[in-house]
Description:
Pathway: Purine metabolism; IMP biosynthesis via de novo pathway; 5-amino-1-(5-phospho-D-ribosyl)imidazole from N(2)-formyl-N(1)-(5-phospho-D-ribosyl)glycinamide: step 1/2
Number of helices: 5
Helix content: 10-25%
Strand order of the largest sheet: 2-1-3-4-11-10-9-6-7
Order of helices and strands: EHEEHEHEEEEHEEEH
Protein name: Phosphoribosylformylglycinamidine synthase subunit PurQ
Distance between the termini: 10 Å
Active site: 87 (nucleophile), 196, 198
Subunit structure: Part of the FGAM synthase complex composed of 1 PurL, 1 PurQ and 2 PurS subunits.
Keywords: ATP-binding, Cytoplasm, Glutamine amidotransferase, Hydrolase, Ligase, Nucleotide-binding, Purine biosynthesis
Structural class: alpha/beta
Shape: globular
Radius of gyration: 16 Å
Low-confidence stretches: none
Amino acid sequence: MTTRVGVITFPGSLDERDAQRAIRLAGAEPVPLWHGSHDLEGVDALVLPGGFSYGDYLRAGAIAALAPIMAEVKDAAANGMPVLGICNGFQMLVEAHLLPGGLIRNAHQQFIRRDQRLRVENADTAWTRGFEQGQEIVIPLKNADGGYICSAETLARVEGEGLVAFRYLGVNPNGSLDDIAGLTNTAGNVVGLMPHPEHAVEPGFGPDTDAAMRSGVDGLTFFTSAVSTVVAAAA
């Protein structure tokens, strides 16, 4: 059985083709989906890609979170389907209340683009099982509204229940509380993060490493993790 992973395009999405390529490299079949549809076309997992849906008007991800297909995304997530939100997709997940908290303008009020060191804080999710707990990885980051915020009560729950999936290392690029770069839900099937794993999946196009320039492929593990999770569930 070939794992089928849906990638939803919203008006203003920029990175859906990159996500589709990452899915192919992970050995799965990417399935393009449209924001105005109510049909998930029988996919096994979902990716909400990066970009600037609806021009980031109102709040980043706020309008896209109300798109027709998000009703199906919520139902699928509630039923355990792996769902990954990348950058703008992460913003959609918090706006749709699939993940707690919110994302606001970077603390320095600047768009930032850098290869970002992260620590894997939760290696027991559908999208992180290929990593080791505490593993350090490098994933490209590009955002203007990546500052993670939440109430003190929510922050205590997020930290106490192990819902922090990734934490920034070396530098906090956007002022996120507790250096939070990504979250998971309690079930571990929904993950969102601001950095872009789909930009670190193929040698020659990823971050620099000690071995060679642009050789970093840490992002590919996100997608291979999801594929193995789906295959294991079907066995």
